[in-house]
Design goal:
about 375 residues, 9 strands, binds zinc ion, two-stranded antiparallel sheet, alpha+beta, elongated
Length: about 375
């Protein structure tokens, strides 16, 4: 710094002069776009955008359990193996087990933790922090682990057989089933699914002894809740009940697998694909054991399909039987639809196209029966 006469440059001035240097600007830079994440430079905007998209994109991290992303409040009811757990786009995870302090863990540790947990509440944050100079992307999950041992599930089934299968179901018996000591603990979730199913039966049947104030249509809600819980248990009883519930709600998506309950398998086959060969009746001499209750409306439909598939020919008397059921004021609308569909499918199979027309026109617009009913109607009119 130049000085004049009496103004002396101090040591502080010398220090500041040393710090205030601007860096050498170097040769002039060509105009363009500099990447804020790395040192790359691009002459055109589209090249720059391609670069940022290809190199610095931070994707949302997620976890898949058995190929499905869990919701923010998911319940896990059957054991997961390491191969069931897939984590994508995550650099690490923060886990908080049963309200403990959150811990940062690697993805491998996270998968091992999930596979080893059977009873816990897990708060999970998956973090994708691969880009140093961008805010990490985080996904939150809340996982409730309610996995019971096989022996615990068996004890619940034992109580179910004793209390709700061998005796009549009432709200009292459902209450004592839920209060039984075999249904406490880790098997509770399974027991609550079975109890919801039985309560659904009572609401659907509306027996005189039970003064019910719940609207009739609430049985679907209870069936739906039972289905949601029971579908996760790898037990034959749970599988059978989920098939019965799907059948009663006119859901034939999961058809194909046999339940071993012959009448149900027959009716599912008849209603999902009436053109196929019908299951042969099993040996009647085999003794059968009741394993679960079934509501009378659904039971009536199983009997109807068994009765009609056994007929060698069609007649107006059979039309009349079906019409009575399809119009019965005591049956639910899903059972009315099923009665029409069983009527149509059976008459059609026996070659009585004329008689099949009446029910076919009524279900032609009703899913899932419309899948075959509209096709048959078209064939009949040509
Ligand atoms: Zn870059």
């Amino acid at each position: 710094m130049p000085t004049v006469g009496w103004i002396r440059e101090g040591d502080l001035d010398a220090f500041f002069e040393g710090t205030e240097r601007t860096p050498d600007p170097g040769p002039p830079r060509e105009p363009g776009y500099s990447c804020p994440f790395c040192a790359a430079h691009f002459p055109s905007q589209s090249e720059f955008q391609d670069h940022v998209y290809a190199k610095h994109r931070v994707e949302r991290p997620f976890i898949l359990l058995r190929g499905q992303e869990p919701s923010a409040h998911a319940v896990i009811r059957s054991p997961l193996s390491l191969s069931d757990i897939a984590v994508t786009n995550a650099s690490h995870a923060k886990v908080c087990l049963d309200g403990a302090l959150p811990q940062q863990v690697s993805i491998d540790t996270l998968r091992e933790t999930i596979a080893a947990t059977s009873q816990a509440e897990l708060n999970l944050e998956l973090v994708n922090a691969t880009e140093q100079r961008a805010a990490p992307v985080v996904t939150h999950y809340g996982l409730s682990f309610r996995i019971a041992q096989k022996a615990e599930l068996k004890r619940v089934e034992e109580a179910f057989g004793e209390i709700l299968v061998s005796e009549a179901i009432t709200r009292n018996s459902i209450g004592s089933f839920l209060a039984d000591k075999r249904t406490q603990g880790p098997g509770r979730e399974y027991a609550s699914g079975l109890a919801d199913y039985c309560l659904g039966i009572i609401i659907k049947e509306r027996p005189d002894g039970e003064s019910l104030t719940t609207p009739f249509s609430r049985y679907r809600e209870l069936y739906g809740r039972a289905l949601d819980i029971l579908k996760d248990f790898p037990r034959p009883l749970a599988r059978l009940i989920t098939c019965i519930i799907r059948f009663s709600l006119n859901n034939f998506e999961n058809g194909g697998g046999r339940t071993g309950y012959w009448e149900l398998d027959l009716a599912i086959e008849l209603l999902s694909n009436p053109g196929s060969a019908i299951l042969a009746c099993p040996n009647e001499s085999v003794t059968r054991r009741p394993v679960c209750p079934i509501d009378h409306g659904t039971g009536r439909m199983l009997e109807l399909s068994k009765h009609l598939t056994a007929q060698p020919r069609w007649s107006p008397i059979l039309d009349d039987e079906c019409r009575t059921l399809a119009q019965s004021g005591l049956l639910d609308v899903t059972d009315h639809q099923k009665a029409l569909a069983i009527w149509a499918a059976s008459a059609w199979r026996l070659g009585s196209t004329e008689c099949a027309l009446e029910p076919l026109t009524q279900i032609a617009e009703i899913y899932p029966f419309s899948r075959w009913a509209s096709k048959y109607l078209e064939q009949a009119s040509t």
